[in-house]
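pasting for the record
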Amino acid sequence: MTDIALVDGARTPHGELLGALSGQSAVDLGTAAIDGLLDRTGIARDRVDWVGFGNAIQAGVGQVPARQAVVRSGLPNATAVTTVNEASGSGVRAIALAADRIAAGETDFAVAGGMESMSNAPYLLPDYRQGRRHGDGEIVDAMVRDGLWDMNYGGHMGEITEDMVAREGIDREVIDEYALRSHRHAADAIEDGRFDAETVAVETRTGLVERDEGPRPESSLESLGALPTPFREDGVITPGNASKLADGAGAVLLADADAAHEQGFGVMAHLVDYATAYRAPDEFNEAVGDVIEELLARNDLTVEDVDHYEVNEAFAAQTVYVRDRLGIPQDALNPNGGAVAFGHPIGASGGMLATSLAYGMEREDATYGLVGMSVGGGGAIMALFER
């Protein structure tokens, strides 16, 4: 078996929708993450054999967005590159593809992750290619169409999650309690400087962005409980307990461990395995539990053996469901907050969370860590790391 090393990671701050990073395109953010990673590791750019980068909302981003980031980062023109679009799973899928290439002996060093600017998602004009002779037309939000809408189910991911909540009988107060925890843990982590080492600053027209936006530690159960439920009149999903719309990028350097050691690189963690699970489109939340169970069983691990879970908080309801179904210890699950607080820049989250996991495991002296998320269309993807 090939020993696959995670040498290092780098991520931009999370930017709120139309916030501090809104002037940067997805490619700008991806370039910042890759540049930061390459500069941090000191790897010669001609040693990177392959780059895989996720990007989910591609309308208007331009041809082969990952290639754009590779060129801007000064990697050689011969560097092979793949753009990955697997909705929220794009970044972790890029990491999995990098691992496959290394295991196959095709690559010694690979950069993998993702980038997204939800702030710059355009509006679309369907049917205008043929022209309109008369009457009103439709404007479609590419952010919703390409990122948040299940085309097979015919509805928003929030609507689907309302169905899961009804099936499982999860109380809104429990969901809001988890959301409040996410906001407060995230704010504490920022204040304590836990993310400083992993984050690369982004230069914008209005100044340098160095810290994450998003957390609302001043929230309370009362304020969260007063928020509307846009997907269902008697529902539970609100803007306060769902992931924020956000901007960002993250990248990790993966390598054949022998090649990494030969180059004098340290290793933050080893990628042990990854898995994917799929169900019906309206059961994407449940698929997260499936993929964690599969990955643990395949590697003879129990839930308690994993010290740190970075499970993307697409919805607090989803995370509560997975936590309770599997019995994940609360302290091990997203200990520094999650997407409910920071936001979920769809194609970027895999690279950003993998970076946070690697740095978190090192800081905590953890042995095992899991990172992953649900995937639109009924799926989930997860990767297992060991120190």
